């Protein structure tokens, strides 16, 4: 249960410049194509066509159907059901020795500490933390604090990030990476450019341009956020506990965002109380994509937090990301 409070705003994406090829790519009607793909996904396939169509997809993208809760390809009525297939309960055990686990199956694009309010989307290519999360309320009257510092609740902590890329053949649901409370959903309508690592190396601030849904709140060490970033043919981002969320709508204002609070309102500030917020346990199912995309975690933790990852490694839901 959450409050029905919602707000809208507009942000200015500063400091973003594009080469001619990138500008031309951005002009492609990727949102329209993604909506058309979404409609195609919902078309019921005749029974005789299902196995050859899905088998081609399985072969092309290396899908492991032995992990699927339903292995019989004839049971998937359309492409959408196949893309959003569930897994057998035992195939993704949760790492008990890590306070933070992978929220998705995919590839680790980047991880580490957030420095100078800039985050790397892939090695050597950064995006602005403020552009990505949008404006935040200041904790004090200190106007000199960096955006990164605004998110930290303790000087003994630091801000960390992890980027997980979901390929088309991956399991498309995402899960809670920790025990935490979600206080706010911020939806950024935007472009739907490919988030393939090759494109991410070419388009600076790619994650700030694309449509995304940021869930922010608190965990045992302070600030915590999980952001689902849309991509071409992945205009649909679903959050299971938020039935009001609608993504890839036909029209939107450039640079706009829409806030929805899951907690009570105290004046003009969001304030969690004993009943406010959506409490998620580590490993709980949170939402899903169509096809594949990217999950970005940004979280506060003690300075001695250590990642147990390698850039480019494959990871699965439930595997440990790091420890204290």
TrEMBL record:
Pathway where this protein functions:
Phospholipid metabolism; phosphatidylethanolamine biosynthesis; Lipid metabolism
Spell out the InterPro entries in the cross-references. Answer: PS_Dcarbxylase, PSD-B, PSD_type1_euk
For the modification Pyruvic acid (Ser), which residues carry it?
A: 293
Task: List its EC numbers.
Answer: 4.1.1.65
Superkingdom: Eukaryota
Sequence ranges on the Mitochondrial matrix membrane side = 1-21
Q: Where is it predominantly found?
A: other
Q: Which cofactor does it need?
A: pyruvate
Annotated Gene Ontology cellular components are: lipid droplet; mitochondrial inner membrane
**Entries under Pfam families matching the protein:** PS_Dcarbxylase
Q: Which reaction does it catalyse?
A: a 1,2-diacyl-sn-glycero-3-phospho-L-serine + H(+) = a 1,2-diacyl-sn-glycero-3-phosphoethanolamine + CO2
| Group of enzyme by EC | lyase
**How many cofactor units bind, and how?**
Binds 1 pyruvoyl group covalently per subunit.
Q: Which UniProt keywords apply?
A: Decarboxylase, Lipid biosynthesis, Lipid droplet, Lipid metabolism, Lyase, Membrane, Mitochondrion, Mitochondrion inner membrane, Phospholipid biosynthesis, Phospholipid metabolism, Pyruvate, Transmembrane, Transmembrane helix, Zymogen
Q: Does the keyword Nucleus apply?
A: no
- One example of a Gene Ontology biological process annotation: protein autoprocessing
Q: Where is this site: Cleavage (non-hydrolytic)?
A: 292-293
List, from the UniProt record, the residues annotated as the active site of this protein.
Answer: 105 (charge relay system), 175 (charge relay system), 293 (charge relay system), 293 (schiff-base intermediate with substrate)
Instruction: Report what the Swiss-Prot or TrEMBL entry states about this protein's PTMs.
Output: Is synthesized initially as an inactive proenzyme. Formation of the active enzyme involves a self-maturation process in which the active site pyruvoyl group is generated from an internal serine residue via an autocatalytic post-translational modification. Two non-identical subunits are generated from the proenzyme in this reaction, and the pyruvate is formed at the N-terminus of the alpha chain, which is derived from the carboxyl end of the proenzyme.
A GO term, aspect molecular function? phosphatidylserine decarboxylase activity
Q: Which residues lie on this side of the membrane: Mitochondrial intermembrane?
A: 21-324
Tell me where it resides. Lipid droplet
Q: Which family does it belong to?
A: Belongs to the phosphatidylserine decarboxylase family. PSD-B subfamily. Eukaryotic type I sub-subfamily.
**Complex formation:** Heterodimer of a large membrane-associated beta subunit and a small pyruvoyl-containing alpha subunit.
Function text: Catalyzes the formation of phosphatidylethanolamine (PtdEtn) from phosphatidylserine (PtdSer). Plays a central role in phospholipid metabolism and in the interorganelle trafficking of phosphatidylserine. May be involved in lipid droplet biogenesis at the endoplasmic reticulum membrane.
Name of the protein: Phosphatidylserine decarboxylase proenzyme, mitochondrial
Please name the source species.
Cyclopterus lumpus (Lumpsucker)
């Amino acid at each position: 249960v959450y409050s029905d409070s919602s707000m809208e705003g507009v942000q200015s994406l500063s400091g973003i410049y594009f080469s001619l090829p990138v500008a031309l790519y951005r002009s492609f009607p990727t949102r329209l194509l993604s909506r058309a793909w979404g409609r195609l996904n919902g078309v019921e396939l005749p029974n005789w066509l299902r196995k050859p169509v899905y088998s081609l997809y399985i072969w092309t993208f290396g899908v492991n159907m032995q992990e699927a809760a339903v292995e019989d390809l004839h049971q998937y009525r359309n492409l959408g059901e196949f893309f959003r297939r569930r897994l057998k309960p035992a195939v993704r055990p949760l790492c008990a020795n890590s306070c933070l686990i992978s929220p998705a199956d995919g590839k680790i694009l980047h991880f580490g500490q957030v420095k100078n309010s800039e985050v790397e989307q892939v090695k050597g290519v950064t995006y602005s933390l403020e552009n990505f999360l949008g404006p935040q309320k200041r904790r004090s009257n200190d106007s000199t604090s960096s955006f990164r510092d605004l998110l930290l609740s303790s000087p003994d902590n630091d801000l960390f990030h992890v980027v997980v890329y979901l390929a088309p053949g991956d399991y498309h649901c995402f899960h809670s990476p920790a025990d935490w409370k979600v206080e706010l959903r911020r939806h950024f309508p935007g472009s739907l450019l490919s988030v393939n690592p090759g494109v991410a190396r070419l388009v600076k601030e790619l994650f700030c341009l694309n449509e995304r849904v940021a869930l922010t709140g608190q965990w045992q060490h302070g600030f915590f956020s999980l952001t689902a970033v849309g991509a071409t043919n992945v205009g649909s981002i679903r959050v299971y506990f938020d039935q009001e969320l609608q993504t890839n709508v036909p029209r939107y204002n450039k640079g706009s965002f829409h806030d929805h609070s899951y907690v009570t309102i105290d004046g003009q500030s969001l304030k969690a109380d004993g009943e406010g917020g959506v409490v998620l346990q580590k490993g709980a199912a949170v939402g899903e994509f169509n096809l594949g995309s990217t999950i970005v975690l940004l979280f506060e933790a003690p300075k001695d937090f250590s990642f147990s990852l390698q850039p480019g490694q494959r990871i699965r839901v439930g595997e440990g990301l790091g420890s204290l």
